[in-house]
Amino acid sequence: MAVQILYSLPAVFENCVACQLTVSELKCRGAPDDRYFYKGSREAPKLSRLSSRRSRASSPVLLRTHRNCSSHQPRRVTLNCRMERTLSAEDRFAGCLIGGACGDALGCVVEELQRPQIVEKYGELGVRAFEKIYDYPGEFTDDTQMTLFTAEGLLSTILCKLKADESLATFRAEDVVPGLHQSYLRWLASQNEVSQSPLFKEVKNLGMLMTQDKLQHRRGPGQTCRMAIKSGAVGSSKNKINDSKGCGGIMRVAPCGLIVHSAFASLTSEEKAELAFKLGNVAAAITHTHPSGWLPSGCQAAIISWILSGESLEEAIERTVPLLEKEPHNEETMTKIRLAQQLGREFVETSQKGDGDDLALQKQTLVLRHMDVLGRGFVGEEALGITLYCALICGEDIETGICYSVNHGGDSDSTGAMTGNILGALFGEAAIPAKWKDNVVLGDLIREISDDLFRVRDPDRQQELAVKYPPPIVIHKGEEYYNNEANLVTPPFKMPPGAMFFDWANSV
Questions:
Q1: Of residues 11, 243, 253, 219, the one with CA closest to residue 150
Q2: Among candidates 86, 57, 104, 56, which has minimal Cα distance to 420?
């Protein structure tokens, strides 16, 4: 039975009594409004980090109405779930990361298969349940591994900056590079590889993530990510270390769209999205320095940011486009975004004309035809195009959207992860099928990290978080990460012996 889900949207009636209610019946973590721990907002209730879901479920929630809405009622949307609940920012944070992990875990089941093989093994609609590919069903790949290490790098940077300046007034996107790079060094160590970076030995065992045994396994690490981090080089838009535009950059940037809503609450929605765009670009360019390796990443992060500001997916895309238009060499990324929108409209128009018992099969056939136009997702702009297309056409059905995104015979774990990130941010963790979210490996750890991202400004958590997320080393042995306009000083980057340029440019 379909029910109503309430969207938590930007407030204009902040103190309206009519908008106050509780969520004790939801059996999930309740949360105050989106500005929960933000300086200058209402005083936050004192909650312990791991307070029970039962005790926190009765917390008052302020339903934040849309700024253009004249009534006090939040916008409603019907989802295929069994309870009415409020989509708080906290729920969107968890939904984004859990959704990404679920899409990754489902996609890795068919990652090595071409479309005819998928049909032969799982039928025309493709895989819809986790299977054992590594050690356990529901285990994710390097996509989610690197997403968690991205979250670690962002948290370590923000926590360090907050000690010096609580307002973060002087913060710039490039400030995250040391923290992210050193987190990626730890990810490389978890893959049982060694970097030439002089920092590698010093940072490789630090932090909470390196204590997680189930993260210390090779799960299909991409060639570009591995070789860039192994070399010790640190890429940027101005410091080109390779010509790769593989999707290994975009697959990991979801936390960049989240943290701007917890650490930078005083910014406007536009400023948050712009910062998320810059953070996504910077994070991806550490390893992928072709413009189509990092520009799609900025778009993915900005779209997630707009979603958290209360925009629909269509609105989030349109409001991200102006950020992309300002950047040089945006043609490939822009083309795939517009193509995804065009094909999404064609899907809706065509599927409305379909009928009969085989309607699901008709839709799947149409999706596959459109996928042939969008590409296979191995490069950044194609992965973004597939992700947006699948998220646009699935309506409010997360399961269908993620299944569309993985059953195409391309880079299915990456497109599944990215689609899960967006749909999870749109509809929250509750809308993710229980068969996935309850069985994805390290689900509790992922929820803990999403909670840490959400509560990074909680003064009662600072000491604990500083232990979990070690501060980055900015200066080491006389070398600096930043230097004048070039921003980054790095060792010379060397191609792996025998590597072909075409393979390198298109590798993940």
A1: 253
A2: 104
